[in-house]
Amino acid sequence: MKRDMNCPPFQKTEEKIKEAAKKVFLEKGFDGATSRDIAEAAGINIALTNYYFRSKEKLFMNIFEDMIQLFFEGSVQILNKPISLRDKIVELIEHDFELMKKNPNLVIFIMNEVHRNPERLVKAIGYIKQLHHTLFKVQVQEAIDKGEIRPVNSLNLMTMIVASVQFLFVSKPMHMQIWQMSEAEFDQFTINQKRLIIDMVTSYLFETEKA
Amino acid sequence: MKRDMNCPPFQKTEEKIKEAAKKVFLEKGFDGATSRDIAEAAGINIALTNYYFRSKEKLFMNIFEDMIQLFFEGSVQILNKPISLRDKIVELIEHDFELMKKNPNLVIFIMNEVHRNPERLVKAIGYIKQLHHTLFKVQVQEAIDKGEIRPVNSLNLMTMIVASVQFLFVSKPMHMQIWQMSEAEFDQFTINQKRLIIDMVTSYLFETEKA
DNA sequence: AATCATTTTAAATATTTGTTTAAAAAAACT
DNA sequence: AGTTTTTTTAAACAAATATTTAAAATGATT
């Protein structure tokens, strides 16, 4: 039978499963999520997950690859954008904050699954390759040569920025417990944190009067 | 029968189980680890894990609390040490790097388990309480009042430091994949990263000639 | 309407899971 | 020595797991 492409009000079963699987996998991880969890979240029969995707592993990899793309694509785009280094750094930080805000457990999910099974990344090597040669790297080197910023390895700098932003959300549950924060208070905290990160990184780089 | 406290060459079964459970839980997490995994790693019968600890959950909590202590105790001690703010920041960073080097998956383990089940932290609330009033916090405020450092919220500062260091190890497997690093190359990278973190944080704080 | 392929369902499959049992082995004590 | 307690073992347990099966329901095409 031909594929039926017109049923806008309804959601195709395959999409229902993917949406539910994304939700459940991101919450509980591969090991913690069961096929029944996913079927229940999607409101469908258990057998359907294996009818559309052949196995739990295949369904997981489908979601995982989506998440890897979501994780990388925005940053890669900004890294290659033709804007000043200063603007680029600010935009990188703000983009990451927005991404994390919309997907609070994206990073812990990815980090955990890669930690458990690094080979899974091999399939997503495409997005990864894009990171090796970016305009950002060139801009950092040029700025250093011109004496506009302190001498710094661009990979170290990039890592520092990403760590500052993303760890905030990796540690969100622990942070809220330790400091007895509500969701709203944590939100406010992230805003302050973003300000500090931007201020610290740009000040460090561009205030070159000393040393 | 009385407890036998003298058998130095041999390892008591209870300790063998704890050691194996620590290894397996840190590698696979609570959901990914099975009782049989642990028994096999300890070289003992499956029933013994439930003989000494009453359940998988109880055994896990035993390990988890140990890890929480390991995670916090060193830092809390340094935060209250009677040394200068500058020395304290450097020591904090270096201590964390050492801790992470010795226990590469300590942080991802804790963050993941807390994310899955935040109530688990309640049992470890003792260590957490210690963080609310530290000498570090006082020192930061004093230094700001004296104009020695830039005005900064001590919690934001602390978070920034911890994030920079710990995320490096949370993302270690992904980092090695992306940048095609060997274990040795990653080690060297962490050394450079430590240098940048210390330089960035201290420069930002203490170079107050501007603004 | 009849036929066909597609989708969905309930039930069953074989494994694996955490945990328990009851007996054996080892150790401690009298 | 014999007796009791502690430790270890092999086997079994029920529940949960991912996956499959075969039949029912649905939808499209003729």
Automatic annotation (TrEMBL), chains A, B:
Q: InterPro entries under this entry?
A: Homeodomain-like_sf, HTH-type_TetR-like_transc_reg, HTH_TetR, Tet_transcr_reg_TetR-rel_C_sf
- A Pfam match is TetR_N
Q: Which GO terms describe its molecular function?
A: DNA binding
UniProt cross-references to PROSITE patterns, sorted A to Z: HTH_TETR_2
Q: Which residues bind DNA?
A: 34-53
Superkingdom, natural source: Bacteria
Q: Residue ranges of the HTH tetR-type domain? A: 11-71
SUPFAM superfamilies reported for this sequence: Homeodomain-like (SSF46689), Tetracyclin repressor-like, C-terminal domain (SSF48498)
Annotated keywords: DNA-binding
Query: What is the name listed in the Swiss-Prot or TrEMBL entry for this protein?
Result: Transcriptional regulator, TetR family
Q: What is the lineage of its organism?
A: Bacteria, Pseudomonadati, Bacteroidota, Cytophagia, Cytophagales
